[in-house]
Amino acid sequence: MTTKAHRLALILPLLFSGSLYSCEPSGGGDSTTSETATSHNPSPGLVSKNNPYSNPIYPLVEGEPAFTYIADPYVVRDDDGTYYLYCTQTDCNAPTTKQFVRGPIWRSNNLVDWTYAGNVFENYNPTWGTSGAGVWAPTVIKVGEKWNYYYSLSTGGDANPGIGVAVADTPYGPFEHKGKLFNSEEIGVTNSIDPHVFYDEGRLYMGWGSFGGLITLIELTEDGLGLQGGLEYQKEHKVSLGGYEINELNNYEATFIMKKDGYYYLFLSTGSCCSGASSTYRVVVARSKTLTGPYLDKEGRDMFGPNRGEAVVVPSMSGAMGVGHCAITTDDGGNYWMLYHGYDTTGSHKDSRVLYMDKLLFDEEGWPYVEDRKASNHETLPGPYIASLEEEE
Q1: What are the pLDDT tens digits along the chain (393 aa)?
Q2: If you compute the radius of gyration of the chain from its CA atoms, what whole number of angstroms results?
Q3: Where in the chain are the domains?
Q4: What DSSP designation does 250 have?
Q5: How far apart are CA 5 and CA 382, in angstroms?
Q6: What count of Cα atoms within 13 Å lies in the side-chain half-sphere of residue 138?
Q7: Cβ contact 345:317 at 8 Å
């Protein structure tokens, strides 16, 4: 029988991620690079027998899946094994009445069945950004005994978006809002959205950026509520990881970094995110032996030009279109799972981004991908391996 301590030891520590014009819907885990995997292995971990899933995944309302617009998903796992899901502001059942929520939170014990858990912005309306700006692409991390929630505050085509932070004692709040960390003009990075905050060697970092600007890395203070050495110091010492300063859809955004087998993997999204079934959004990856790069794709190219990166998941009319903005977590069986958004071309909400999840596999050279490099869609598959569910058998 798997003990709780054994189960938690199997949770491979990872790092986590956003989207350029994270189009607003109508109406409105521990993150660490500590390395635990020891070898490249294309085989999956333990296979679940008692936790099936089918894409797209909708949160539950009164026990039944209810359509919910979910863009830019991010997931963490608490110490007790509970998963928490966050996304760009949306209309959702909170908990039973459809309403507009700036910072929705859902919880799940199995990564499949999600129920509403709260609203990060229940008692706070951010006004420090551009007038009418929305809350996009959050990322959450446990820092000490606190949980920090980072978010983009932006409008479509915003000339000066920025990144803010809130803090709580639990991953579901209530959150104390600290306001702005920085905006694009202050930090010197065009289109400063899509933050991803993570640990590496005990130090806390943020990667971010989007179309028209560079994918950028800075260091945060120990509590994650400020910039190490101050804003001007980090402005002068920031590191560019990829992208190029042309505002076009071949550029990159939605940074997510994880470390495995001695490599840092830089996941980025590229293409059109918000054109319904015509969206070309996709996830690509490059890797480096050092956090600061250079990050190279399978052909040895860096990420400072268009159409680069090894494909992880690409759009497919038989799967889903506009697939991107990923976050990655693990289960109790050593499997990696990638959550991302896409457009279900075969469903009744073809123009709405919804939640997808698929197992992340690795080839013989260690490059990550999902099966067939396309989203599974309306297909029942074995889901995450959750020890407590398998022990019930």
Answers
A1: 333 333 333 333 344 333 333 333 333 333 434 333 333 344 468 999 999 999 999 999 999 999 999 999 999 999 999 999 999 999 999 988 899 999 999 999 999 999 999 999 999 999 999 999 999 999 999 999 999 999 999 999 999 999 999 999 999 999 999 999 999 999 999 999 999 999 999 999 999 999 999 999 999 999 999 999 999 999 999 999 999 999 999 999 999 999 999 999 999 999 999 999 999 999 999 999 999 999 999 999 999 999 999 999 999 988 899 999 999 999 999 999 999 999 999 888 999 999 999 999 999 999 999 999 999 999 999 999 999 999 855
A2: 19
A3: 4-391
A4: T
A5: 24
A6: 31
A7: yes
Question: How is residue 126 written in tokens?
Answer: 């951010």
- Give dist(CA 151, CA 179) in Å, integer: 10
Whether 297 contacts 284, CB under 8 Å = yes
Decide if domain 4-391 falls under CATH 2.130.10.10.
no
pTM: 0.90
